[in-house]
Design goal:
mainly alpha; Hypothetical protein af1432
Length: about 180
């Protein structure tokens, strides 16, 4: 099932998604929808399931306020929640959205929906920003050594994905916030 906006809001409430995360996922959805519309209008033959992308964008962080089971981390609990809620169609997008997924060929974003959700998530904190700004914010955090290493390994791959997508639509990454707004 791909949930409706009303069902998504009910899931936000059921799993106590914090207000700041609701803002984040709403902006992620806006960026993803904007990018998908641009890609489809600039490149013939590309089809993107915007309904699927929209729902996955709004639910990709559903586990942020949920007690994780032993061995779970983000987004494992979110995948479990969405599976239990019957939202199996969203699972591949949620699995492939964390920063580290781009480093793992098994779960790295491959479909257009996965790529657009992944990139859009990296262009939003609580407002729409650039990938570079998002990485600057992560670098300013007190990450453990493994986290810093992963961040630096992921950066060139995220920039490559950004270049692929924004290059197709003939837009500068730093202009997207103003265009989406």
């Amino acid at each position: 099932m791909i949930p409706s906006d009303d069902q998504i809001r009910q899931l936000w409430d059921k799993y106590s998604l914090p207000e700041n995360k609701r803002i984040h996922v709403t902006h992620v959805a806006r960026v993803a929808e904007y990018l998908s519309a641009c890609v489809m209008s600039h490149v013939s033959g590309i089809r993107i399931d915007i309904v699927l992308l929209h729902a996955a964008a709004l639910l990709h962080d559903i586990d942020k306020n949920v007690l994780k089971r032993e061995g779970e981390q983000h987004p494992d609990a979110g995948v479990r929640i969405l599976k239990n809620e019957g939202c199996d169609e969203l699972l591949p997008l949620v699995i492939s959205h964390p920063l580290h997924s781009i480093l793992d060929p098994k779960i790295s974003p491959k479909t257009w929906e996965e790529k657009l959700l992944y990139l859009s998530d990296k262009m939003v904190k609580y407002e729409i920003i650039t990938v570079d700004k998002r990485f600057d914010l992560w670098r300013a955090e007190n990450l453990p050594k493994e986290g810093r290493i992963m961040l630096e390994k992921a950066y060139p791959l995220v920039k490559k994905l950004e270049a692929e997508i924004v290059g197709m639509i003939n837009v500068k990454a730093w202009d997207i916030a103003g265009l989406v707004g």
